[in-house]
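This section describes the prediction task in plain terms. A model, or a person checking by hand, is given the sequence of a single protein chain and must write out its three-dimensional structure as a string of tokens. No templates, partner chains or ligands are provided. The sample shown here is typical of the held-out split.
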Amino acid sequence: SQFVVYYFEKGVIAPTHCGLYAIPIEGGEPIELDAPNVNRRVDSIKISGDGSTVLFVSRTSDLSSSMLYSVPAVGGEPIPVTEQIIGSHIYEITPDNQHAVILQYFSSADTHSLIFSDFEGGQEPLVEGLQYIDYFEITADGAYVVYEKEGVGEDELWSVKIDGGILNHLNGSLVPGGSITSFKITPDGSTVIYLADEIVDESPQLFKAPVDGSVTSEVLTLWNIGNQITYKISPDSQWVVYRADAEIVDKLDLFSVPI
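The expected answer:
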């Protein structure tokens, strides 16, 4: 059966009932997934791709502490995936629907860590104690995690195998004051496309790098592509299509470049 999962909070001034429930998509009786507790809040609710498991972050009422749980969609006792920390959790479910990659922020130390965990809390640290991790993605084949971190004076792109191992530095050196605007992973999981100031500050170009860091990054656009660029990768992972004011300022055109 397929389920709709929802969080219910009752109370006008202060909550008197807070609980997480699932209900069959065709209708029926609600199933309690997390016992109601007015002293905590539930957010970041996600369902595994096969519909079997619900993950959620439980936060204390003052929002200072958080903890990640999993629970079967058909109901059962919630299982701690992480310990409770003073800080926050951001996570993504892996393509195999059996694990999660979790970005933890420890507010007391002001550091971030990435961990790989099954739904029962069996964990493997990927990256620990970094000052700032801005964003991460999992490759579609579930083999790698790619993340952007704040380096010493500049942004950096890194990858690591999803179950741990060597860290791979992906981007080239940025110009002084330059930054990485964004990155995307090709659908086949082989290549990272990113927008960055590696040639001229405030004049971003598109670059590519293999997800395993085996060769140095290469520029894809050899001219000024403007400051309004947006881009997408073709489903076959062979092309980047981008929109930019490359020829006339504030006049947006479509361009393509082979990967």
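For orientation: The chain has no helices and 22 strands.
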